[in-house]
Amino acid sequence: MTTFETIGLGAARTDGQSRSEFNRLVWISAAFAAAILAVIASAALAFPPSASAGDAAAKANRLDGALPASCSGQAWGAWSPDCLAALTGNTSLRPVGTVTVEQRPAGENVSVLMRLPANG
Q1: At the top level of its lineage, which domain of life is listed (predicted)?
Q2: pTM > 0.70: yes or no
Q3: Total domains present in the chain
Q4: Which residue among 10, 21, 29, 52 is least crowded, i.e. fewest CB within 10 A of its CB?
């Protein structure tokens, strides 16, 4: 037997090493390489490429122009009927916003939930 015997993956062992010790080192090396690849893959998935400037520009112009005067100071989604009419041009709008109210009767282990119109 020669001093170095080439065994899979380009590894070499000396005559002084037993086959089981050498196989153990090969498996540890393979596990270490797999762990490094897993870290690299998870980093690639955890940090996706950032959005391009074109994507941001496309989203910035969703509302053309300024809001009407009747909408000043109102948060998105909590607009008054006057503001909605000014935004859409439709005067026959029905409110669909609701508020959930909870009641707990005294002495009972029950809660009663009721949905009411947001403006009523």
Answers
A1: Bacteria
A2: no
A3: 2
A4: 10
User: How far is it, in rounded angstroms, from Cα 102 to Cα 93?
Assistant: 28
Q: Does any domain span residue 55?
A: no
Q: What are phi and psi of 115, to 5 degrees?
A: -105, 125
Residues 107 and 63: their CA atoms lie apart, in Å, by 52
- For residue 4, what are the β-bridge partners? 14
User: Could you list the residue range(s) of the whole structural domain that residue 10 is in?
Assistant: 4-46
Per-residue pLDDT of the chain (120 residues; tens, 9 = 90+): 444 454 445 556 555 667 888 888 899 999 999 999 999 999 888 887 766 655 655 665 555 567 788 888 887 777 788 888 888 888 777 767 788 889 998 888 898 888 887 765
Question: Does 29 reside within a domain?
Answer: yes
Same domain assignment for residues 84 and 42: no
Between CA 120 and CA 9 the distance in angstroms is 76
